[in-house]
Amino acid sequence: MIPDPTDPFLPEPHTIAALLAGGDWACAHDEPETLSEVAHLLGRCVPAAQQRELEKIAALANRDDMLAATTSWARLRESLCGRG
Question: Does residue 29 lie within any of the structural domains?
């Protein structure tokens, strides 16, 4: 899904950066609920392949598998920031 630029609920670029920072914080502080929420919110504004990865991250976090969720988050974050 390509985000609709006229969607009033589409996060602004600075909000995307805040979501990435929130995901980093959740990983660093072992906060699965926060990571799951960040993954769901970020999924609204990324391409389909990354949406699927964010869904997997949320599912891992919801199962309290933070090691796997954090590892997946780090990979996804690198790809979102253009380093992957």
Answer: no
User: What is the DSSP-derived secondary structure letter of residue 52?
Assistant: H
The number of beta carbons lying within 10 Å of the beta carbon of residue 45 is 19
pTM score over 0.85: no
Q: Consecutive 10-residue runs of the chain (84 residues): their mean pLDDT?
A: 54 76 96 96 89 97 97 94 64
Query: By the 8 A CB rule, do 54 and 79 touch?
Result: no
Cβ 66 vs Cβ 23: under 8 Å = no
Phi, psi of 29 (to 5 degrees): -105, 15
Copy the structure tokens of residue 56.
């997997």
Residue 4 lies in a domain: no
**In the block, residue with structure tokens 């969607």:** 7
Q: How many domains does the chain have?
A: 1
